Amino acid sequence: MGIWRKKTFRYVLILGVCMLLFGFIVKDAEMKGSIQKRLADYSNSFAKSKHLDGTVLVVKNGKVLFQKAYGHSDQVKGIPTTVNTKYQIASLSKSFAAVSILQLQEKGLLSVQDPISKYIPDFPNGNTITIQQLLTHSSGIPEYYNEQLDKNKKYSIDDLIDLFKNQPLSFKPGSQFSYTDSGYVLLAKIVQVVSHQSYEDYVTKHILQKAGMNNTSFEWENQKNVATPYLSDKPAQKLSSTMLIGAGDLVSTTEDLYKYTQMLQNNGFMSAKSLKLMETGYIQANSDSQYGYGWFIRKPTFFNNHLDIYHAGSIPGIKTEIDRYVNDGLTIIVLSNNWNGISISDYSNKLASFVLN
Questions:
Q1: Which residues form the Beta-lactamase-related domain (predicted)?
Q2: CA–CA distance from 234 to each of 75, 215, 318 (Å)?
Q3: pTM of the predicted model over 0.85
Q4: Which residue in 90, 285, 288, 315 has its CB near the most CB atoms, within 10 A?
């Protein structure tokens, strides 16, 4: 009788463990399904109510949770958006300049603490402005870009620098944060001077080709499958690809940008030490974020201590954003070609909340 009871207890115990494990498996499957469904349902609703034309990619730990294209890349011609549609990525381009600078620093060809006069001798106040201050938008150099610039003109880096080099500084270098494209134009110039090649050639060889970013390039004027920007459903004039050299000059896709973020995190472009320099906050940029080198660093109190390294881009008719929750393996990329009162940041944050909560 005692032996029978022991065997029965053993069978019951095994059955209980199996049922418990099965319950965990079912619950895990339901959770995964529910997250993906919530991402899809919210995105579909958002696209319908806000008229989002664009491409969305959500990846966690290398697995795609959500990927979809909405609307049209060209409304006039009726060309639908696809996951392979290319977009002007605006200020998401800035981190490429920052990577270039850090690569050159690793080679001993420059230091982020160097004054910019070492590389651009004739720049006013160049002896009081460091490369790091250019990287962190704390140089005091005023913004050059405005709507009055000739959108059809082909600019050189020197043409752009001439637009602001003789303007007085807005504040003492290093004393505060003021977002400006001008500093990143100067960074592109420094890359050219130090590497002895054009900025475009340097980035193409040392970043784009290295990451296998075959759908990313500098010129979009003569390319196919590039989204047309819209302002309230009316076509916006595309900027010349030379108007924002170093600051907003690239065209890319969500998948290529994901390759880029993975190369960053896996130290494919530079050492872990340099990556840490890039992702360290040096100056307060807004109420919840500091600025590193080409990235905003959002305080880890956001989303219950989930660190968010992010950047947004904005030019007429184009809105873009990358959010990298690096400690969670979560990357969210949104590229849109229609300004219609939408907030890409709010949308991206909502997607993150579904995954992280």
A1: 54-341
A2: 9, 26, 12
A3: yes
A4: 90
